[in-house]
Amino acid sequence: SEVQFRPYRTDDFITRLYYETPRLTVLNQTWVLKARVNDSERNPNLSCKRTLSFQLTLKSKVNAPLECSFLLLEGPYDDVQIRPVIYHFVFSNESNETDYLALPIRDSVECNKLLAAKNINLRLFLFQIQK
To answer: Which UniProt keywords apply (predicted)?
Structure first.
């Protein structure tokens, strides 16, 4: 699926930038992706090192645990270099979101290219592991 992260700001005393996708349907389930810059450090603007991390959340209720592998890659018409890393997680009603995982972008320059865009366009590959 092609996903589009849109920027949002928290209502905290010190506002924080984060990104979120609209709900998407994959494997007959509803999902949302969230992303944050520099793991929500206090002042990411004071750092010259930029990173993005993401979290995959299952919004649907499931009858049985759903074991999945997934990865994010660059989106269409993008020249940002992302190294493919396959992540694994078992989703259930009690455990429906992954930890924040590093988006394996080559370096800070590539990350800044993503952050400079109005929206971040990536491709999500999500595979269900059958037992």
So the answer is: Metal-binding
b/e code 26-36 from CB counts within 10 Å (16+ = b):
beebebbbbbb
> In whole angstroms, what separates CA 59 from the centre of its chain?
15
Total-model pTM: 0.87
Strand partners, 66: 91
Could you write out the DSSP letters of every residue in 27-90?
A: TTEEEEEEEEEGGG-S-GGG-S---EEEEEEE-S--SS-EEEEEEEEE-TT----B----EEEE
Q: Phi, psi (5° rounding) for residue 58?
A: -85, 120
pLDDT number for residue 40:
56
